[in-house]
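Morning!

This is the sequence you dropped in the shared folder:
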Amino acid sequence: MMSEIIAQVNAWPFLQQLPDRQAGFSLSLDLAESGTQYNIFSYRNEQELRSLSVLYDQTTRDFLARVAVGLNEFYDISFICGNLAGLEKILTVKLASTLSDLDGGRQYESIFRAKKIAEWPYGARLPGEIEGFRLFIGPGRPTRTINGSYVIIDYSDFAAASNLNISYNVYRDEFFGQQHFRHTPEMSAAFDTRDLGELASRLEQNLRPALRELRNRITQTEGQDQS
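The structure's back. Tokens below.
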């Protein structure tokens, strides 16, 4: 039962051992219910719009870690476990390194480094803003998400909860696009390729039109909200 988990968490000595700051992130002891979840604690970097939150989910009966980088959110499966003792062991081993990775200190796996994405000259030429979307993630500082994917380009309008990102998946050796419109994820095939040179061509052809279309949709819904 949720009440039993809450009692266990509130009496958990490990919470008192957590440092107030780690790798540029500040600790927040949440200790609050949200629907079927109980938010335990979070580390947040408000300036960089990055966070890691540890919680309990009553539906799955698991402790989880939710990572947010801008509008990109996912659960880190390496933190999933069914009891506090197991969670404490995982946090002791992984929390500091995971926060360091989120802060930009990641050591990228060899298959990703071999693609030379971080050194890609085209990445340095990406505009800082297009159609009101700012470049939040660039190829020089990619972010690993789930299932072997790295976000290498992200143009976001945080006020509109909308973005477009380009990712690379190390298992499929493939670049692909995804966007969020008002938080809702949508796939885009306009950037699918396995070659960096081809990706540059697809970005030249499709990036600005895709962001312009997304901006138009945002503007249309704003008009509907006001009517």
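Headline: The first strand starts at residue 21 and ends at 22.

More detail when I'm at my desk.
O.
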